[in-house]
């Protein structure tokens, strides 16, 4: 394995260099290595944590953005270096890496910390784009974003869990727009717990709350009816629903 024109190469008949040969290249000095060389070393199947650390420790090589990105994403990068380099990555790359399960969990936690530190600087368009595919840390933040477009984008995110939706509805901070979006969402509107939570939230538009009643159990309807917070309108809706149920039974 020899250096030619600032690149590391082997003869055409030789196989891929071993980890020892990669280390030997670095031993001859990193000053001759280019950005492409560093990327090739990091991508090499035989690369070790020790070799990656030597690349990460070199100020010139680690100043290349593509090298920083690969170092953060690589499982063999020592975590202290990966966690340091997340501060220098662009927002879209941070969002992508935050949900990449091949990235070690401690590094993803460092990425989430960086995302939360920068989230207040985002434009509306950036918040909408990020909400569609972000990690749980940002999901919990975007749930309370004041713009309904961000919440609509968040409902597309496959990482949103029912617990987060229910926590939002019960928090007292859910807006009428958010509650209406949930009631009309093709995924969440069919969840029984979401239907019940919408009825229990006094901020839910009353037509939407009333539409959920026929999907609730008799026990839940009884409990809702006797709650002091339940509006007169919903009580009348429950009474009519009961009357309709009794009438159907009598006719059958």
Description:
- With 252 residues, this protein is an all-alpha fold.
- It has three domains: 1-88; 90-160, no CATH class; 187-252, no CATH class.
- The chain is built from 16 helices and two strands.
- A two-stranded antiparallel ribbon has the order 1-2.
- Helix 2 packs parallel to helix 4 and helix 4 packs across helix 5.
- The longest helix is centred in the C-terminal third of the chain and has 20 residues, at 232-251.
Helix segment count? 16
How much is the average pLDDT? 89
The description of the largest β-sheet is: 2 strands, antiparallel
Percent of residues in β-strands: under 5%
Low-confidence parts lasting 5 or more residues at pLDDT below 50?
1-7, 10-14
Residues in helices, as a percent range = 55-70%
Largest sheet, spatial ordering of strands: 1-2
Order of helices and strands: EEHHHHHHHHHHHHHHHH
């Amino acid at each position: 394995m020899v250096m030619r024109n600032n690149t590391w190469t082997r003869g055409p008949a030789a196989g891929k260099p071993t980890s020892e040969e990669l280390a030997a290249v670095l031993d001859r000095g990193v000053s001759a290595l280019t950005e492409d060389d560093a990327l090739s070393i990091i991508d090499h199947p035989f690369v070790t944590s020790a070799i990656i650390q030597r690349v990460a420790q070199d100020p010139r090589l680690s100043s290349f953005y593509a090298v920083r990105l690969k170092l953060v994403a690589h499982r063999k990068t020592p975590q202290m270096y990966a966690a340091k380099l997340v501060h220098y990555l662009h927002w879209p790359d941070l969002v992508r890496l935050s949900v990449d399960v091949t990235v070690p969990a401690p590094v993803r936690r460092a990425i989430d910390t960086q995302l939360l530190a920068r989230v207040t600087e985002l434009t509306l368009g950036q918040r909408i784009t990020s909400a569609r595919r972000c990690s749980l840390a940002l999901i919990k933040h975007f749930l309370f974003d004041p713009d309904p477009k961000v919440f609509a984008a968040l409902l597309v995110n496959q990482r949103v869990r029912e617990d987060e939706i229910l926590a939002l509805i019960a928090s007292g901070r859910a807006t009428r727009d958010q509650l209406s979006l949930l009631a009309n969402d093709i995924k969440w509107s069919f969840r029984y717990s979401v239907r019940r939570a919408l009825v229990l939230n006094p901020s839910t538009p009353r037509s939407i709350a009333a539409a959920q009643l026929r999907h609730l159990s008799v026990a839940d309807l009884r409990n809702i009816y006797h709650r002091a917070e339940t509006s007169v309108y919903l009580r009348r809706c429950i009474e009519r629903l009961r009357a309709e149920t009794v009438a159907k039974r009598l006719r059958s």
